[in-house]
Specification:
The complex is a heterodimer of chains A (160) and B (504). By secondary structure, chain A is mainly alpha-helical. Chain A has five helices and no strands. Chain A is flat. With 504 residues, chain B is mainly alpha-helical. Chain B has one domain. Helices cover 72% and strands 1% of the residues of chain B. Chain B has 24 helices and two strands. In chain B, helix 1 crosses helix 19. The chains are: A mainly alpha (160), B mainly alpha (504). Chains A and B meet through helix 1, helix 2, helix 3, helix 4 and helix 5 of A and helix 11, helix 12, helix 20, helix 21 and helix 22 of B.
């Protein structure tokens, strides 16, 4: 079983599941008397079926060729890597949650500092100063130079 | 020749020269920021053009477009984030060269090829406007469908060691492209009741997620990996020998870019990917592609800069903007009471000749401004990884938010980043997904419109000569690639693994 669950085989399974899910949604698309020959669901259904077939093909090719492959640990360290990546993703999600409340400038400073620390940098004056510099620079670039409206958040109370 | 001489006289007008230099500088900055498209960069300048002299105003906007199309390659090479859609193809070999400590050379090749592409495109614009306009007019919906299929056939080459995985990745992109509004009936598809998805998912969000965000996730998960080689903070132009080697891919890029640019809706993305594909096909060193091949940068950069020039053909000749950027330029014309179209040359010839002079100045200015700005960019990316990655993360979040001022867009980008990270682990290539996403709308809308026109007869795709020719070429690409894979398998020849998106 261990040797079957190669990356390609798992990829094939994912493709089948994704294709099936997409097909389910595609067949639920409403048709109308005004539709053309293909209609809104035509191409999506074709894509869905192609995805499912390709998924099966990938699984089949993997099974046929697996006897040629040497046994190898396909998933060595992947769990640890996924956990580390999830941490960075968590920082991004936290940014999404606080930016409208705290404001773009302060959220950026916090994001930059958190990312540096997560990458192994120790909390220090240098990290804080770099974060502040980066946040202010991006704020000035996007808000003042490019005229993009960013969430002001707490800065509203100081008139910015 | 008369056109060239008349345009040259406008080089003495300092308003045009200054406008061109300011425009190209602003364009490079805007194009280099992920999420800030060339059209947004141009739109930001529109209010300033109200009080300007008409020719200078048009030159300012057009030069911004030229600068922005080049500017997108800078983050593509340095931080694996295409600043524009068309720069996605440059990521492949540009970022690989950067990892090898050759960022200066990669940027130098990109700049050199971009300037050549701009000048070549400008010459085509000046000399061949009429025949190129005829090409644009002859493209019907079946021909656009066939063009989209031709673009997708590139997947056969970009799939690396597994054509099946490449096709799965491409179909994923096509599936994402169906989200939003149906191109023919206007009904909603796969929006899950969300109003944010009514306009679909902009390719730039997925590209930034797949390339940049997944790279950040991969780097943070790869603790203990050796630091990459730092590049000298100096731009490096190709040697004479390397420049000779680049002539072929640059020629390929220039020709493809010229023709793709004149076709409304085709765009620089198709041109850059097709150029990359063809450059690889005709290269003496095809195995180097995807691993830091200079040709892999030269071809797409020449193409997308040529597109920036020839995209003006349908605008100037017919008043038809073929892209968002040329639509902004059309706005610039209309603000000053100038109507592009068949009578433009008769009624406002001085604007056209002044524009040509301005574009020439912008192309030359691109070279010098690039040489001044790029060493600073290299210095920035040589900073310690912790600092650089934090700044990149902040930059891409800011850039994507600036598209629609929407946190939903950021969630899309983060999701695409997760998908890209998982694709890396499962060793699926990214580029086919990008191709599918960019071409999905063109393929489906053209296909269905063609059937409506023909009364549901599929013969329309074979009766249209351009469509038939392009479909035949696509078939040759795909079956040729499959045949080569089978032949290599029979001979037990190890197929070069495409390095992009396969580490994990």
């Amino acid at each position: 079983m261990q040797s079957i669950l190669s990356r390609d085989f798992v990829g094939g399974i994912v493709a089948i599941v994704l294709g099936a899910f997409y097909l389910n949604l595609a067949y639920d698309l409403r048709s109308s008397a005004l539709d053309d020959l293909v209609g809104p669901g035509g191409m999506p259904r074709a894509y869905g079926w192609v995805m499912v077939v390709l998924g099966f093909a990938l699984c089949a090719v993997t099974l046929v060729t697996r006897w040629r492959e040497q046994k190898s640990d396909h998933w060595k360290d992947q769990g640890r890597r996924i956990m580390w990546a999830a941490g960075l993703l968590g920082i991004g999600i936290a940014y999404l949650l606080i930016v409208n409340v705290v404001g773009y400038l302060l959220s950026m400073i916090l994001l930059i500092a958190a990312t540096m620390i997560y990458h192994g940098e120790r909390l220090s004056t240098k990290v804080l100063a770099s974060s502040a510099f980066g946040g202010v620079m991006l704020w000035a670039l996007f808000v003042f130079v490019l005229g993009v409206h960013m969430p002001p958040g707490l800065l509203t109370y100081v008139g910015l | 020749m008369e056109t060239i001489l008349t345009s040259a006289s406008y080089l003495l007008d300092y308003h045009i020269v200054v406008a061109a230099l300011i425009g190209v500088t602003w364009g490079i900055i805007g194009g280099a920021l992920p999420g800030i498209s060339p059209s947004i960069t141009m739109a930001l300048l529109l209010p300033f053009t109200y009080s300007m002299e008409p020719t200078a105003a048009i030159v300012l906007l057009a030069a911004t477009y030229v600068g922005a199309e080049y500017g997108g390659s800078v983050p593509a090479i340095l931080i694996r984030t295409p600043g524009t859609n068309a720069a996605a193809a440059t990521v492949l070999d540009g970022y690989e060269m950067n990892k090898q400590g050759k960022a200066g050379l990669a940027l130098g090749i990109s700049l050199y090829s971009g300037v050549l592409g701009s000048l070549f495109g400008l010459i085509m614009l000046m000399m061949l406007s009429k025949p190129l306009a005829a090409v644009a007019l002859s493209f019907t919906p079946p021909a656009y469908f066939a063009l989209g299929i031709l673009g997708l056939s590139v997947i056969a080459t970009l799939s690396g060691d597994s054509l099946i995985k490449g096709m799965i990745a491409a179909v994923l992109g096509l599936m994402i492209a169906t989200i939003g509004t149906d191109p023919v009936t206007g009904g909603t598809r796969f929006t899950m009741g969300s109003s944010d998805l009514l306009t679909g998912i902009a390719p730039v969000m997925v590209m930034v997620g797949l390339f940049a965000m997944s790279e950040l996730l991969a780097q943070v998960s790869n603790r203990g990996a050796s630091e990459r080689v730092n590049s000298k903070p100096k731009i490096e132009f190709p040697s004479f020998k390397l420049a000779r080697r680049l002539v072929k891919p640059q020629s390929i890029g220039g020709v493809i870019g010229t023709f793709e640019g004149v076709m409304p809706g085709a765009g620089g993305t198709i041109a850059s990917f097709m150029s990359y594909n063809e450059a690889r096909r005709w290269s003496k060193y095809p195995d180097e592609f995807g691993k830091g091949s200079p040709e892999g940068i030269a071809a797409p950069e020449t193409a997308n800069n040529a597109v920036a020039e020839t995209a003006l053909v349908p605008l100037l000749s017919f008043g038809i903007p073929g892209s968002n950027s040329t639509a902004i330029l059309l706005g610039g014309f209309l603000i000053h009471g100038i109507v592009p179209g068949p009578m433009l040359f008769q009624r406002s010839g001085e604007v056209v000749y002044g524009l040509y002079a301005g574009l020439f100045t912008a192309a030359i200015g691109l070279l010098f401004i690039g040489m001044a700005v790029l060493p600073l960019c290299i210095w920035i990316v040589n900073r310690p990884r912790q600092y650089l990655n934090a700044f990149i993360f902040a930059l891409i979040l800011s850039g994507i938010y600036s598209i629609h001022n929407s946190l939903f867009d950021l969630s899309i980008m983060l999701t695409a980043g997760v998908v890209g990270f998982l694709m890396r682990i499962l060793k699926f290539p990214f580029l086919p997904t990008v191709l599918g996403l960019v071409l999905g709308y063109l393929v489906e809308s053209s296909f269905r419109r063609s059937l409506v026109i023909s009364g549901d007869s599929y013969a329309i795709f074979f009766n249209d000569r351009i469509s038939l020719a392009l479909l035949c070429v696509s078939g040759l690409f795909v079956f040729g690639s499959i045949g080569k894979r089978i032949w290599d398998a029979i001979r037990h020849k190890k197929r070069a693994t495409f390095s992009e998106g396969t580490e994990g």
